[in-house]
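Researcher: Please generate the 3D structure of the following complex. Treat every line as part of one assembly.
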Amino acid sequence: MLSEHTIPSDYDDEGDEFIDFESYYSVEDTDLNGFKDDSDFDITSDMNSDDESGSRISFLISTQDSENLGKKSSLSGSEERGLPKLNYNCLTTDQIYKLMLQRMENLQPIFNIPLEDMIILLQRYGWSEERLLEQWTEDMEKVLVASGLRTAKHDKIKRGIKLHPNFMCHICCESGEKETFSLECAHEYCLDCYKHYIQDKLPDGKIITCMNCDLALRNEDIDKIMGDNSSAKLMLSSIKGFIQKHSNHYKWCPFVDCNYVIQVGNISSLSEFPRFHISPYVICDNKHKFCFQCGLESHAPGDCQVADVWVKTAQAESANLNWVLKNTKECPKCGVNIEKNGGCNHMTCKSCAYEFCWICEGCWKDHGGSYYECTRFKKEDKNDNVESKGSLRKYTFYYRLFSEHENSAKLDWNLGQTVEQKVRALQENVGISWIESQFLPESIRALIEGRTTLKWSFPVAFYSDPSHNLTKIFVDNQFLLVNAVEDLSQLLQIKEPKKIMEKKLDFYNKARFVKSRENALIECGRDLLCKGICIPQK
Amino acid sequence: MSRAKRLMKELQAVKDDPEANVNLEFVSETDIHHLKGSFLGPPGTPYEGGKFIVDIEVPMEYPFKPPKMKFDTKVYHPNISSVTGAICLDILKNAWSPVITLKSALISLQALLQSPEPNDPQDAEVAQHYIRDKASFDKTAALWTRTYAPIDILEPKNNVDEADLYGIDKALIEQFLSQGFEEAKTVEVLRRLGIKSMDPSDNETANRILEELLK
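Model: Done. Output below.
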């Protein structure tokens, strides 16, 4: 794998590419098997050993699909020994809740109270069993009263909804025939007021009590008053609070509309990652890959520091850049940035004395009589001039590349949405099975991941010493990945199902090629960081 | 609509209970969102003998959302802003419950005057004063009560001594006045530094004040 830093010089020939792929493929295949065996070992060894025992990132994923598991192993790229690993699970909030319910059932014999009351207790203690048990053993009665599970006075009133022929509600001050609700405390209010009250409290995720005392409503009470499964909303909010409180163990997938939660088992290993200039990437069940450390999307080959400095610079500079882009134009002749701060449209460049029209950027002499009313259509952007002069120019250059690839990745994402239709068309028109058509979504994933890596390779290039040989190799590697990505992208534009099937092997090859180029680029970037050639600074 | 009914009922309840010494009325006949409440300063406190007026804004979601209350009368109290009259009290925020009425909220404010919570301050300057020198704080709070909240006189006096108003030692101010600094500036700096009095031999503090004054 190490030899991949150097570029195969004869790769651009189609035939060679195929052979290349074959070799990559077989390499990955063995790796994959090795990984599977190893990962079993990792899980067991992890129980009683520290982080040193690990060999590399191992993926403990709840998915049953062994093919996915294999894919992920190849994604991790660096199959080197000695790198820290991260054990994690991908969970939905439902799963988290179910896990908690399970644990509650296990705990129930200790407490010997109904499960509904256990939920309230755990809610009160922020789902921390240790704290609850501690307090419970200290003073059981106190915990019960504080959590609103006991009244001071023990009236014989049953909690629940009742119908009163003539009732005056102290909240809304309406009277007449009303349905009411009360707990054992006998603080009785009309159902409408209770509904209103609970509705407001559901998003807080805290225990809902009687309006007049600390007695708690159980989930079943909430469901009775609100109907349906309203308490689920309360539980969801409660779990959200729990995840926020335990953000070092749990993180939401940062992708839009993704509700998965990643739970990391061995958080102590997180501190190991920066030393190796790699980041603890996790992948949720929606196949979103993100960095558990900084919460950004996958930003390889850059490490968290590169990403952090780059993003902060981008935020600080974007105001500047936007201003420059908005208020200045480049002299059509010499490319110097010019700000027009008033006056007429007849511009004379201070740098090269070229006279031009501000509106159309054409030569002033050609304007004839229509001096002040330029109606000539504005030419396409001429901002392709990319020689880097000065740091802002250099930054602008890299930033533009970065955002261009970001935009392309977004477009590819949209492309991915149409892939579903293509897959269906394949199944219906060509009559192939679902599993056989999976090469399409996999190719699109390879494409998007390739683009993301490409995008984040520009910050690394920006912060690297340009005169160093390794930087040059890195740039060459970038170039190779660009080509590989564009090739694959073109292939994915094909619409006819038949043609797609004919090119099936091509899809495989090109996707694999993107992946191997990506890994090579990531490794090369890591080398730049490890050797101190790439130094991110503001 | 339930809100209107409830408010009318609350107003009636206040009228029916003159012994509570709480007053509640609409600012204008046409607007039931906006009320003014008032209560007497609790006896045995520096607020005794004062009448405190509270501005009350009733939200649409009342009584499920708490009313917005702030003091119209200037009050010297750790949990009440001496500038805006904003109140730091849990039942007006997250501890609100629909069973709490405007009257009970006003009574809670009265209780707040009785037992300040200097560790959860709204006004840091005042809270600091309270913690450092309770006797001096009481004197200032009582002066504010006499000045801004007299029961019988409606218009507050304005010709009060600045130093007294912030509980700053007269001798300390004199010391800097004699050095040619303006009184207003001196009071402002001393307030900013949170210094109410000073040991005459404490050169370090004196230098710090001088430094601020010369800025």
